[in-house]
Amino acid sequence: MPTVQIPTPLRPHAGGLDVVEAEGATVGAVLEAVVSKHPALRERLFEGGELRRFVNVYVNNEDIRFLEDLETPVGERDEISIIPAIAGG
Amino acid sequence: MPFADDGRDPLERYSRQMRFGPLGEEGQRRLRSSRVTICGCGALGTVLANHLVRAGVGFVRVVDRDFIETHNLQRQILFDEEDVASNLPKAEAAARKLRAINSEVVVEAVVADIDHTNILELVSDVDLILDGTDNFETRYLINDAAVKLGKPWIFGGVIGSEGQTMTIRPGLTPCLRCVIETSPPPGMTPTCETAGVLGPAVAVVASFEAVEAIKLLAGKLEALNTELIMIDVWDWAFRRLKIAALKDRVDCPTCKHRTFEWLDGKQGSHTTTLCGRNAVQVAAPRGHRLDFAELAARLSGAGEVRHNAFMLRFAADGYEFTVFPDGRAIIKGTNDVAKARTLYAQYVGN
Ligand SMILES: [Zn+2]
Fold first, then answer.
1. Which of B40, B64, B155, B339 has a CB 3.0–4.6 Å from the CB of B45, allowing a cystine?
2. Spelled out in words, what is the top-level CATH class assigned to the domain A3-84?
């Protein structure tokens, strides 16, 4: 199953998990399965079916914006990461 | 020229660094004739300044709006208890220490709040801009200035045990906005004040930034980082996210359309001193309503929080914050606009 890496600030909304496994053939389908399991994540990731503008998603270290966005196909071993913008310093 | 009279080779103090093959003597000479501005002299900024002054970068300008407080000492490596007692601005205390470390380097301290009115002046006479700030508002402003002037800059951010960095060369790499189109709205992103930060995490990220600076200034361009680096020192995680292809794919308002919203003062916060009230209003329009429950949860570790549908009240460090759903805040306990902006970035986040 594809895995989704949950960044630290979102873990409290994903039952404290750092990795969630979910079924799906595309990035969009996998993320939809993840937010169904962890409903508190939905509004943090999506706004009207679209990813929020400040949410950056990578598949195997590549930004989905230069793959096929939410339509990017994923297989069993693919790793999806939600990458937060880190503000501090 | 402090070493000119004693007949010693002025490059001798850098011998161990010059023996590092990829840098060499020629690289060292280029460092010596280079100029940088470090924006922000807190955790990242002090580590950056320390490395670059020791490495022999010819001119280092440090810009910061804050004074040193005891809780800075855990991670802001150029400061000590005496600096706190003397009530020195960070930029000035850092400059004194840096000159003592390497008297050959010209160190300029600027005590100022970096905003759209002064940034071009602070960066136009240097070869490289370094990010030692703690908020995205200033980073997008640096990005605007860097893209406009065609100057490289190095982004770095840290929170908790994790951080990220990327090296931006306008025209050659994606800019900050190509990669991070917008930052999370205030209250939705942790800050060092709400989520904490480890000194070693800052040191690791700033050290990566410093190595990139050395490569860039020494002309070793082929060795530069072209990815978004993510590091977690607690989990031993190191990731390299491929971003190079974003440069031509993203319809970036900044580097493609050359609209500079932060530099033009159209984006970013506006502050007003509330006369006679010992308070400052910070307006940070984001076109997004704050989630008070989320902000309250985030702030609960840092002080006392209460909220209803109309406002959130929060007290910490002797200041009282009243935050409104549109992101506007009134910070009581200071008349100092720069201090208020700092507190806003620290607790509400931007
Ligand atoms: Zn761009």
1. B40
2. alpha beta
